[in-house]
Amino acid sequence: MDKLLYTLIRRYKTTDPFIIAKKLGIHIRYADLGPHTRGIYYSKLRRRFIVINSRLSIRWQRFICAHELAHDQLHRGLNRFFLDEYSFSNANKYERQANQFAVQLLLSETEIRLGETVEQLFLRNGVPIEMISYFKGGQINGFY
To answer: Where is the IrrE N-terminal-like domain (predicted)?
Structure first.
């Protein structure tokens, strides 16, 4: 996963999941997906889509875009739903990988400051603190 992230960041010169998705030809749509579905990744007729729940905050929409981008890059061919009940402690293998990818992508250009907590790092970078369990200590590589 580290090599894939490095390649994407280097190739597109950004860690913005919206820009990366656009450059990869993935269509991003917004829809009211109800209270339990945060995002969907699917492909149809060789066109790839990320649908993000329009009810979410900007912080969560950015995270969900990165999460669904992970499904495109790591689990292509599987249509995935980002469901609240599968996204935290009971996440299956694919959801865990997508969460780790998203956290790593969104934090890859930053460094933890002296005396800063992981929670503060997440807040400063607009990453939902609910995803702290997917943070690998020392993962911030300065890919850019």
So the answer is: 21-113
Distance (Å, whole) CA 126 – CA 128: 6
User: Helix, strand, or coil here: 28?
Assistant: strand
How far is it, in rounded angstroms, from Cα 21 to Cα 50?
9
- The string of pLDDT tens digits covering residues 51-79 is 999 999 999 999 999 999 999 999 876 65
Residues written for the chain: 144
3-state secondary structure 30-90: EECCCCCEEEEEEEECCEEEEEEECCCCHHHHHHHHHHHHHHHHHCCCCCEEEEHHHHCCC
**Is residue 17 in a domain?**
yes
Cβ count within 10 A of residue 138: 7
Q: Is residue 92 part of a domain?
A: yes
Domain region containing 64: 2-133
Domain count, the chain: 1
